[in-house]
């Protein structure tokens, strides 16, 4: 492979006689990390299993680092190839080798799988291009390890791992017998599903921004069609895709053309469930169908029917468009290679021209030229890994985002976070207080009060938050049963903040906060005040999402999801309120 750098060397641990001097082991205990700020976050427990006899392993590193052709991507796709070789071990009552890969700074899970019977793990993961380091975590039968991995130009994480020590097989509970211990299984009673991975991993949204004149060059304002999307994959124990859930919101349309957002998965039999909600969260359409072959899916309705105004004119008050919930349940788990990594090959179909607009870096002509880069080498579509602020009409991305040009002229090596530094006067966007579900009431700007007469400085529920549920349920015009579900979730939320929730002990909450607070505060301190206020409101908005996902999941939410949600809520919101108070004091 031209330009590829393959690293091959050994890591060693105590108990091994190798020719390398001063060999030291990585004996670090994998830390428990709370779920992120997204409904139904995967269980992010560490891979630490019951104690074993020795922690000896040997690792051959075959990673491939190669500078890829620049294609205007703000995410990085990394293949995963890991081979476990068992020696001197008993095969009796063994659990499979478990692999989990996290972003080092945030602790967010990017990949999770167990080895197949031959000891092989294969798959692909996606991280933001600003992520510099990962932690490769693996464990089996009472042993757990964590190894740092650099993402610089990394296209394949490739490791051979020899588990060398004899171990006393511990009693590890595995209720569904899928090889994943219950402590690490997001679905401990379902052998077909074992883990959840969210895209993006930070619990936010990707922004899909299109120019719709393809193949004619556009005006580079990327506001003809703008949507936000978040995707959740439920994976089998060996990393196959067992279920996909996605939520999409139409947020801008500054064009006269009509469009659909589409996807051509090209897979076998599957059930597809689709729901469309108005900005007022009224269910407009619902469908459920089972097809023998899934060649093409319209993920949204036609764009002239899904948003009421452009949201790209100066002086406009933002009005959200419709929200679409999609669930794909294949008859048999799908291999990663069949679909690629989220957001997959989603594209814009332009009704008026009959053309499809894809992201660059996917389709090439017979001369090797990218079909979706114009003659100047510029794309018609951008994927931004955050809740992005698009341009007003007659504004250009080069002036609205001063770091955009130096980013792409450096082939993506510099200014990797260009998309969070706009000229505020030239961009529109979703203002603070809007979530994928509903606008949330104002945060407390004065003296805060708790639900009950208890004192919890900084972290208490506010009067505005107490009023929030009544306002929201009234706005959604819910039935009595639905209101009780929302209030039940809200009650859980309140109990966590008072340390009373049965699933989350104060000690667990405190350890989760301490382990992640530094990273969270780094994010918080680099955010503008209005962004922090929005994050705080978004936390409350997640509660309403419980209602919808209860519907999708047959009226139930597994306890581990609730636990992860509560842990994520408390540690993130605590840092936000700390920072907001600090800024208020500085005034």
Walk me through this protein's architecture.
The protein is globular. With 587 residues, the protein is of the alpha+beta class. The N and C termini lie far apart (57 Å). The chain has three domains: 5-185, Immunoglobulin-like; 206-426, no CATH class; 463-586, no CATH class. The chain has helices at 336-339, 397-400, 404-409, 463-476, 480-497, 506-525, 529-552, 559-586, and strands at residues 5-6, 10-11, 57-61, 64-65, 75-86, 98-103, 109-114, 120-128, 133-140, 143-150, 154-163, 195-199, 206-210, 225-235, 241-252, 259-263, 270-277, 283-291, 297-298, 323-330, 347-350, 355-357, 381-384. The chain contains eight helices and 23 strands.
Task: List strands and helices in order, with pairings.
Layout: E1 5-6, E2 10-11, E3 57-61, E4 64-65, E5 75-86, E6 98-103, E7 109-114, E8 120-128, E9 133-140, E10 143-150, E11 154-163, E12 195-199, E13 206-210, E14 225-235, E15 241-252, E16 259-263, E17 270-277, E18 283-291, E19 297-298, E20 323-330, H1 336-339, E21 347-350, E22 355-357, E23 381-384, H2 397-400, H3 404-409, H4 463-476, H5 480-497, H6 506-525, H7 529-552, H8 559-586
Count of DSSP E strands? 23
Average of per-residue pLDDT values: 73
Please give the oligomerization state of what you see. single chain
Overall shape: globular
Describe the largest sheet: 8 strands, antiparallel
* Portion in strands: 15-25%
Unreliable stretches: 5-54, 88-94, 435-483, 508-516, 546-551
Essential attributes:
587 residues; alpha+beta; Immunoglobulin-like; 3 domains; eight-stranded antiparallel β-sheet; seven-stranded mixed β-sheet; 8 helices; 20% helix; globular
């Amino acid at each position: 492979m031209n330009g590829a750098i393959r690293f091959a060397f050994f890591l060693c641990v105590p108990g091994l006689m190798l020719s390398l001097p001063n060999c030291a082991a990585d004996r670090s205990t994998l830390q428990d990390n709370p779920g992120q700020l997204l409904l139904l976050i995967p269980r992010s427990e560490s891979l630490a299993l019951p104690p074993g006899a020795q922690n000896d392993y040997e690792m051959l590193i075959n990673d491939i680092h190669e500078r890829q052709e620049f294609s205007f991507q703000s995410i990085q796709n990394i293949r995963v190839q890991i081979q476990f070789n068992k020696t001197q071990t008993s095969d009796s009552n063994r659990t499979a080798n478990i692999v989990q890969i996290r972003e080092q700074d945030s602790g967010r899970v990017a990949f999770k799988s167990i080895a197949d019977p031959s000891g092989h793990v294969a798959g692909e993961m996606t991280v933001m291009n600003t992520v510099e380091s990962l932690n490769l975590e693996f464990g089996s039968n009472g042993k757990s390890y964590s190894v740092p991995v650099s993402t610089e130009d990394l296209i394949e994480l490739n490791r051979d791992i020899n588990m060398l020590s004899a171990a006393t097989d511990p009693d590890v509970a595995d209720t569904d017998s899928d090889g994943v211990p219950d402590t690490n299984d997001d679905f401990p009673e379902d052998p077909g599903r074992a883990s959840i991975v969210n895209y993006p991993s930070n619990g936010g949204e990707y922004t899909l921004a299109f120019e719709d004149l393809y193949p004619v060059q556009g005006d580079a304002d990327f506001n003809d069609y703008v949507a936000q999307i978040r995707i959740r994959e439920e994976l089998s124990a060996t990393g196959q895709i067992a279920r996909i859930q996605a939520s999409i919101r139409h947020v801008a349309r500054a064009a006269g053309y009509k469009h659909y957002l589409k996807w051509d998965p090209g897979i076998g039999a599957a059930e597809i469930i689709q729901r469309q909600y108005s900005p007022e969260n009224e269910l407009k359409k619902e469908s459920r169908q089972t097809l023998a072959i899934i060649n093409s899916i319209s993920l949204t309705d036609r764009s002239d029917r899904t948003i009421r105004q452009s949201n790209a004119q100066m002086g406009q008050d933002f009005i959200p468009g419709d929200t679409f919930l999609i669930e794909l349940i294949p008859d048999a788990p799908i291999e990663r290679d069949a679909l690629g990594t989220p957001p997959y090959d989603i594209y814009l179909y332009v009704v008026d021209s009959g053309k499809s607009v894809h992201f660059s870096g996917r389709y090439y002509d017979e001369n090797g030229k990218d079909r979706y880069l114009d003659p100047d080498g510029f794309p018609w579509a951008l994927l931004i890994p955050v809740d992005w602020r698009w341009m007003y009409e007659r504004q250009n991305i080069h002036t609205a985002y001063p770091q955009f040009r130096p980013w792409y002229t450096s082939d993506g090596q510099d200014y990797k976070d260009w998309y969070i530094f706009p000229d505020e006067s030239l961009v529109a966007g979703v203002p603070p207080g809007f979530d994928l579900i509903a606008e949330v009431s104002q945060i407390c700007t004065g003296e805060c009060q708790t639900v009950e007469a208890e004192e919890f400085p900084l972290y208490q529920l506010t009067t505005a938050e107490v009023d929030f549920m009544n306002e929201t349920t009234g706005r959604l015009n819910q039935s009595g049963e639905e209101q009780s579900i929302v209030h039940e979730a809200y009650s859980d939320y309140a109990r966590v903040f008072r340390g009373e929730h049965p699933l989350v002990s104060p000690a667990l909450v405190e350890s989760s906060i301490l382990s992640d607070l530094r990273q969270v505060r780094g994010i918080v301190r680099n955010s503008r005040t209005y962004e922090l206020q929005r994050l705080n409101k978004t936390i409350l908005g997640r509660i309403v999402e419980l209602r919808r996902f209860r519907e999708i999941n047959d009226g139930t939410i597994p306890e581990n999801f609730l636990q992860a949600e509560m842990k994520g809520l408390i540690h993130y919101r605590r840092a936000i309120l700390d920072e907001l108070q600090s800024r208020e004091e500085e005034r």
